[in-house]
Design brief:
The protein has 77 residues and is α+β, with helices and mostly antiparallel strands. Helix content is 27%, strand content 23%. It has a single domain (2-71), classed as Roll (Ubiquitin-like (UB roll)), CATH 3.10.20.
Length: 77
């Protein structure tokens, strides 16, 4: 499963994307990402999570071929 980081999440992780072999749920994947990159903890708390472009919760089960995206809130003009 691919986890893609955007904006502040990318900065906290130090990479733009990586592959995880974690449990089946989005929550398991996010926990694995925070374990690998502790600086992500406060970012994950405020992020939206997308699976294949759709907003999901931590309990959603994802397949190995799906992309999970971590999208922090942003401001712009």
């Amino acid at each position: 499963m691919t986890l893609r980081y955007w904006a502040g999440a990318r900065d906290a992780a130090g990479v733009s994307e990586e592959t995880f072999d974690a449990g089946p749920s989005v929550g398991d994947i996010l926990d694995a990402a925070v374990g690998a990159h502790p600086a992500l903890r406060p970012v994950v708390a405020v992020c939206s999570v997308l699976v294949d472009g759709r907003a999901v919760g931590r309990d959603v089960v994802v397949g190995d071929d799906q992309v999970v995206e971590l999208l922090p809130p942003f401001a712009g003009g």
